Amino acid sequence: MAGSTASGGFGARTSTPRPTGVAVELLVVHNISLPPGRFGSGSIERLFCNDPTPHPHPHPFLELLADLRVSAHFLIERNGRATQFVGCSERAWHAGVSSFAGCHGCNDFSIGVEMEGTDFLAFEPVQYAALAQLTRALRAALPLRAVRGHSHIAPGRKTDPGPLFDWNGLPGRPTCRRTGCPRARSRQMQAMR
Ligand SMILES: [Zn+2]
C-alpha cells in the first residue's frame, strides 16, 4: 500500500473490529487540516494515533478535540505522502452519522481517506496521484464498489472534501452498482447459511 504505516502504538481508542460478515464496499474521501487551515503541523497524526503526550504547539482548537474519538484509515498529506493509521479490516471513526445505498453507519463498511486540505483550497496534484494509487490498491484487495465524499454520505452535516475536490482527477474511480445495503446483504447471506 502507498506510503508508510503509523507505528505510534497509541491507537487503542481509534478503531474497533468491523461487524462480522460485512464487506468493505465504500471508500469515503474527507479533508482535514489541524489546526484548521494549517498544514504539516503533525497534529492530524497525533489525533489519529491518540497520542497522549503534551502537544509541542498547543492550540485552543486542538484542546477541543482532545476527547473526541476520531480516526481514519489513511491520510494523504499535501506532499502526497500517504500514511495508514488503521488496518482495513478494522472500523475507523471517520463517517459519523451517515448513510450509503440506504444503509446507515458507514463506518461499518467503509474505508476513510483524509486528504490534508480544506474546503477552500485546491488539492495538490500529488495528492490526487496518491489517492488514485491507493484506490487501485484497495480495489485489488477489497470489494469496493463506490467512492464518495463525506458530504455525499452525510449531506447537510458535512461539506468535505469540499467543492474544490476534483472528482474527475481520480482515475479508476469505481462506479456504484446499487446492489443495496452492504449490511443488509450480509444479514441475507447469514440467513441463507
Ligand atoms: Zn469528513
Quick overview:
This protein is an alpha/beta fold. The chain has a single domain (15-192), classed as Peptidoglycan recognition protein-like (Lysozyme-like). The protein has helices at residues 43-48, 60-64, 125-141, 150-153, 182-192, and strands at residues 4-5, 15-17, 26-32, 74-76, 82-84, 90-92, 99-100, 103-104, 110-116, 146-149.
Structural features, described:
The chain is α/β, with parallel strands linked by helices and 193 residues long. It has one domain (15-192): Lysozyme-like (3-Layer(aba) Sandwich), CATH 3.40.80. Helix content is 22%, strand content 19%. It is built from five helices and ten strands; from the N terminus they run E-E-E-H-H-E-E-E-E-E-E-H-E-H-H. It has a six-stranded mixed β-sheet with strand order 1-5-4-9-3-10. Strands 2-6 form a two-stranded antiparallel sheet. The protein is globular. 34% of the residues are buried. Residues 1-12 have low confidence and may be disordered. The structure holds zinc ion (ZN). Zinc ion is lined by residues 30, 150, 158, 160.
